[in-house]
């Protein structure tokens, strides 16, 4: 029902950037190799995500607007392991309940695509149409029917910064996906498929080509790959620190500290090195469900992971300085 969806929306979709994240993650889950993100007015008037993924059947398309209609879990055990990004079937119904949503989709083998128009949870139009294979979802006038939430939104600059963060966080985790981002008809990012280093350089600029130190660590418990910045390029402000567990962007104060401390006397206080590190470990050893937006993660053996990370970064820095 609409109210339950709006309540859920309050948890899952707090701002335009959360909607962008949910839509992009769905495209990734649908195995898209190209995702286009088109934003107007920092997402306040329009958010469109177009992908070339699997598309949806007519049934899927109608179902996905119902609560808990996820196609991604079949057993409770799956729920714990979380191989795909989405797992609760809450995002689309939540977004639909607080916006005007258009869904266009076509699966391979279908001649015609399907177009659905939804206003605040209610399907007001359904028709067949011409469509590329994949899915396009357009969210207009987010929070149009929840004025309190709309009022809570920050300035365009701030809201767009959040969208940019979401886009970049995913762009780093999926360098093999072709990603584009438009804001108010201006092209912000055109990221061609490549490896992680190429993606970092595409996002942060050509100088990064010569600023990165490769990190690699392989233990039974934990695998680490990625890059840390050279000490001499550390910046006076934070903002270029990216940490992922099982390819999911997370924030973790302790583990971030592990990286900073690995630099020891190589950088002065109040300087922060770039890093983009990917940790791979058994999903059973963590709890990702501590927050609906899934950015916070609780680790079973945080100290242990802290130590491995710190020594991996130290090791990489030592290799570099000799
Ligand atoms: P979840 O991702 O947790 O399953 P969502 O509400 O985000 O829940 O999506 C509901 C369902 O809609 C998905 O499980 C999937 O079947 C379908 N879906 C959503 N977006 C796409 C997309 N871009 N391509 C294909 N299927 C999609
Ligand atoms: Mg989802």
TrEMBL record:
Could you confirm whether the keyword DNA repair appears in this record? yes
Keywords, sorted A to Z = DNA damage, DNA repair, Endonuclease, Hydrolase, Nuclease
Record-level GO BP terms: mismatch repair
Entry's Gene Ontology molecular function annotations: ATP binding; ATP hydrolysis activity; ATP-dependent DNA damage sensor activity; endonuclease activity; mismatched DNA binding
Q: Which GO terms describe its cellular component?
A: mismatch repair complex
Task: Give start and end of each DNA mismatch repair protein S5 domain.
Answer: 200-318
Explain the purpose of this protein: This protein is involved in the repair of mismatches in DNA. It is required for dam-dependent methyl-directed DNA mismatch repair. May act as a 'molecular matchmaker', a protein that promotes the formation of a stable complex between two or more DNA-binding proteins in an ATP-dependent manner without itself being part of a final effector complex.
Which family is this sequence assigned to?
Belongs to the DNA mismatch repair MutL/HexB family.
Q: What is this protein called?
A: DNA mismatch repair protein MutL
């Amino acid at each position: 029902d609409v109210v339950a969806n709006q309540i859920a929306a309050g948890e899952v979709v707090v701002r335009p950037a959360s909607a962008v994240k949910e839509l992009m993650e769905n495209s990734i889950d649908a195995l898209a190799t190209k995702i286009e993100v088109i934003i107007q007015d920092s997402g306040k008037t329009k958010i469109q995500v177009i992908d070339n993924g699997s598309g949806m059947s007519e049934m899927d398309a109608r179902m996905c607007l119902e609560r808990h209609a996820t196609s991604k879990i079949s057993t409770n055990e799956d729920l714990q392991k979380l191989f795909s990004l989405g797992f609760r079937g809450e995002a689309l119904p939540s977004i639909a309940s607080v916006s005007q949503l258009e869904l266009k989709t076509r699966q391979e083998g279908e001649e015609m695509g399907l177009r659905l128009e939804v206003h605040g949870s209610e399907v007001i139009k359904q028709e067949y149409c011409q469509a590329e294979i994949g899915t396009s979802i357009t969210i207009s006038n987010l929070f149009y029917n929840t004025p309190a939430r709309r009022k809570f939104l920050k300035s365009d600059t701030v809201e767009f910064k959040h969208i940019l963060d979401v886009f970049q966080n995913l762009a780093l985790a999926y360098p093999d996906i072709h990603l584009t981002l438009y804001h108010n008809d201006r092209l912000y990012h055109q990221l061609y498929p490549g490896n992680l280093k190429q993606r970092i350089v595409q996002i942060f600029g050509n100088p990064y080509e010569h600023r990165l130190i490769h990190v690699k660590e392989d233990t039974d418990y934990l695998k680490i790959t990625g890059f840390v910045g050279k000490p001499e390029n550390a910046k006076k402000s934070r903002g270029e620190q990216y940490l992922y567990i099982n390819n999911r962007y997370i924030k973790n104060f302790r583990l971030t500290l592990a990286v900073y401390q690995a630099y020891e006397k190589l950088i002065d206080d109040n300087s922060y090195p770039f890093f983009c590190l990917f940790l791979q470990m058994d999903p059973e050893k963590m709890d990702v469900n501590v927050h609906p937006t899934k950015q916070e993660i609780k680790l079973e053996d945080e100290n242990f992971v802290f130590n491995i990370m710190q020594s991996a970064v130290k090791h990489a820095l030592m290799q570099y300085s000799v």
